[in-house]
Amino acid sequence: MSDDGLYARLMARCEECGDCILWRGSYTANGHPQVRVLGKVQLVRRVVYQLKRGPIQPGRVIVLKCGERGCVKYEHMAQYTIKQVAQKAAKAGAFSRPDRCAKIARGCQRSVNAKLTQEQAAEIRGSAETQRALAAKYGVNKSMIARIKNGTAWRQMAVGASVFTLGTL
Predict the structure, then answer these.
(1) Any bridge partners for residue 77, and if so which?
(2) CB–CB of 142/133 below 8 Å?
(3) Angular region, 117: left φ>0, alpha ψ -120 to 50, beta rest
(4) Is 109 part of any domain?
């Protein structure tokens, strides 16, 4: 990618804030700085990185070391694989089980396509009826009943639960 004054034009749309250079232009729906270059919308950080540091290797993403989402300072950028980003996020606790289960639960509760409620899943989990009877009663298939009972569906209901606390023995 050739500079031809592009870097100067990009920096004209930024504001220095402490050690970071913050983008004051448009953002994607996910909150990443974006700009139109040669008729194509691109992420500002990728454009700046390519202008100042060279090409981005295939399968790599640009990650900020400073953590400021709007920052476009090339000294704060580094290339990582998706796997490296995921490992870093896991170490930071982004995938911790209680938080993740709560997020999944909120998604299930809001889903307009969900056939069951949390209360119904709790009833199914504690029921001694056959899977066939429960499937007919709640209008779902037997495999869904099995997944609820073994804790792979409606997982947030099973966190910390055991057969001894559910009264299924």
Answers:
(1) 64
(2) no
(3) beta
(4) yes
Half-sphere exposure of 96 toward its Cβ, with a 13 Å CA cutoff?
A: 6
CB contact burial 71-95 (16+ within 10 A = b; e otherwise): bbbbebbebeeeeeeeeeeeeeeee
Tens-digit pLDDT profile for residues 129-160: 999 999 999 999 999 999 888 888 876 654 44
pLDDT in tens, 76-107: 999 999 999 888 888 877 766 666 667 666 66
Q: How many domains does the chain have?
A: 2
> Residue 43, SS3?
strand
CATH code of 26's domain = 3.90.75
If asked whether residues 86 and 102 sit together in one domain, one would say no
Would the pTM count as exceeding 0.90?
no
